[in-house]
Amino acid sequence: MKTKLLLASVLIFSLSCTTTPVSGHKALLLTSAATENQQGEEAYKEILTKEKVVTGTLDSKLVEEIGKRIAAVANQPDFQWEFKTLQSNEPNAFCLPGGKVAVYTAIFPYAKNEAGLATVMGHEIGHAIARHGGQRMTQQMITSGLLAGAGLTAFSKMDPTKKAIAMAALGAGVTYGITLPFSRGDETEADEIGLVLMAKAGYDPREAVNFWDRFSQAGGSAPPEFMSTHPNSEKRREHLRSLIPKVMGDYESSAKLGLGRNL
Ligand SMILES: [Zn+2]
């Protein structure tokens, strides 16, 4: 029985192992990109009805501008990009599969300028490009069985618990009170992709290290959710610093906006 199970797992793995874009890492995916994108869109629509969407402010315009610049260099023809600002006391941001991005207003003081905001958005978009949401859905399907068949089901047809877990797996669980941290490997991969994207979009990649520096001071007695899902160690900043020389060429040949405007 065990052998059969093992064989089945090996078979599933060899059939579903996908190479993620940009970094070229191998990943196990039982969901299709099309399904993930469709679920991302559904989740986004629902979140926008539950949260307060901010429009017409300089900050919300910058979120859109930066998002469009990153989208222009991200090479994701299947994404239907959208960039929204959500009013919140929680410093947070996410990008759902298919390019549905949300930035929470409380993260602006840490972002400080356009390059800081591009760091956050590039990182979150990196998770979506590398399909980390789909990988977490896959893990949930295998380990808990809770999402059995969920890869094929519309959110509207799921019971509330399954839906909340699926939302969390995709990266938008905050609204539903559930957050799942990405693995350290996923975090590193999103940092790498994000850094390339911000440099190509014209933002000084050196500001990425400064952003995480500033954000590390957001601790206090009740550290924000984003902090617990994004462990902000000196190691992370060290790794980013080591990557900067590799992306300076991309930055030098971009439109070079430096740090951009202050938020
Ligand atoms: Zn992350």
From TrEMBL:
Belongs to the peptidase M48 family. Pfam families: Peptidase_M48. Residues 62-243 form the Peptidase M48 domain. The keyword Zinc applies. Its cofactor is Zn(2+). Keywords: Hydrolase, Metal-binding, Metalloprotease, Protease, Signal, Zinc. CDD domains: M48C_Oma1_like. InterPro entries: Mito/Outer_Membr_Metalloprot, Peptidase_M48. This is M48 family metallopeptidase. Binds 1 zinc ion per subunit. Residues 1-19 form the signal peptide.
